[in-house]
Design goal:
Blueprint: H1 3-15, H2 19-27, H3 32-38, H4 43-48, H5 50-58, H6 79-112, E1 118-123, E2 128-134, H7 137-157, E3 164-170, H8 176-196, E4 203-208, E5 213-220, H9 226-240, E6 246-252, H10 254-273, E7 279-284, E8 291-297, H11 306-321, H12 324-330, E9 335-340
Parallel strand pairs: 2-3, 5-6, 8-9
Antiparallel strand pairs: 1-2, 4-5, 7-8
Pfam family, one: DUF4030
Domain DUF4179: 53-108
Protein name: DUF4030 domain-containing protein
């Protein structure tokens, strides 16, 4: 096994399949599907969730989104070349897992060295960075363009590609750190109260900013005492905060969350690594077994080599999923690959 594959195996052995991470999966259920669904919601609903999206991204809870679109010309390859590409796909894992962490670290290093007082929000799916600069309006107007240019140039030099950078001025008393402290305190006290009451819960996600205050409780499907849990949370809110908090409850299937955790990086790697193929998106559902993988392409069924091209893509995906390191991640979970042409007609 070459060095890249060994690193991939070590990375996923450490970060996905030890006891600590198994518990983390149950305690930190990701919200990516809600983010995706919100794209097509009415404007007032979308605005309602803006606070949650900030929380998920800034806490590192966001995971790779569905439907990543990659458009490029088809490059025909012999199957021997397909098999040679598998180690390359595997090697993509580690760089992708490190990328989000490194971007925030790079920005903090760059701005701290210049003595700026700032906070950062990173929105990976949108390739957007928001920087909150503390100081007077005059100071903000003086440095905002410099801050934006510094970040863009540094990310580009580190091969992170083009990012949108928004620099925002924070008036006195609106520091994001103040909100973070209040958020952490309220969340910790909510979790302690629920544990003391013997209630089953996965997580309590607290959001506080200038315009919105909300709590999203994630509980197992087996926990039925929803009204009691809301009352406990409300009593904690009254003790530690002022104003009205909207309390929402989301029922979670921990097993389905674990499937998402291990499969979504695998599928994103396929999309990112097969840039020479006309794959537009991969559809999937964690509610179904075997896991359906619907690979949608821009290949015209009337093309002379259409079936050959689709079979080549299917073979490459299968080879990747059956490789030693990916099998170690997805285990023996069954899946089913379905190939579609540009008119959404199933070919295989």
């Amino acid at each position: 096994m070459d060095k890249d594959l060994e690193q991939v195996k070590e990375h996923y052995g450490e970060h996905y399949f030890n006891d600590e991470i198994a518990n983390r999966i149950k305690n930190r259920v990701h919200a990516s599907l809600r983010d995706i669904e919100s794209v097509n919601e009415p404007r007032h609903i979308k605005n309602k969730w803006s606070l949650w999206k900030k929380i998920f991204y800034s806490s590192g809870a966001a995971i790779i989104a569905l439907g990543l679109v990659i458009g490029s010309g088809f490059v025909s390859q012999a199957m021997a070349e397909v098999l040679q590409k598998i180690p390359y796909l595997n090697s993509i894992y580690e760089s992708k897992q490190k990328q989000t962490e490194s971007i925030t670290a790079i920005i903090r290093e760059e701005l701290s060295s210049r003595n700026y007082n700032f906070g950062i929000s990173h929105y990976p799916h949108e390739k957007k960075i928001e920087v909150f600069v503390e100081g007077t309006k005059e100071y903000y107007e003086t440095i905002k363009e410099d801050v934006s240019k510094i970040i863009i140039d540094r990310l580009y030099s580190e091969n992170h590609g083009a990012y949108t950078v928004i620099v925002t001025n924070l008036n006195e008393g609106k520091s994001p750190y103040k909100y973070q402290e209040r958020t952490w305190r309220l969340r910790e006290n909510i979790e302690m109260a629920l544990k003391a009451g013997g209630y089953e819960f996965i997580s309590a996600i607290v959001g506080i900013d200038d315009n919105e205050r909300g709590i999203l409780l994630e509980i197992p499907e087996t926990e039925r005492r929803v009204d009691e849990i809301k009352q406990v949370v409300q009593s904690v809110v009254l003790e530690y905060e002022k104003g009205t908090f909207e309390i929402e409850v989301n029922r979670i299937d921990p097993e389905k969350a674990e499937r998402k955790q291990k499969w979504e990086p695998v599928l994103d790697t396929i999309l990112s690594g097969m840039k020479g193929y006309r794959i537009e998106q991969i559809g999937y559902s964690f509610d179904i077994s075997p896991l359906p993988l619907s690979i949608h392409t821009s290949i015209d069924s009337t093309d002379k080599n259409a079936k050959e091209q689709l079979k080549e893509i299917e073979s490459m995906v299968k080879s990747f999923l059956e490789s030693e390191d990916i099998k170690a991640i997805i285990k023996d979970e069954p899946y089913m690959i379905e190939m579609y042409d540009k008119d959404n007609r199933k070919i295989n």
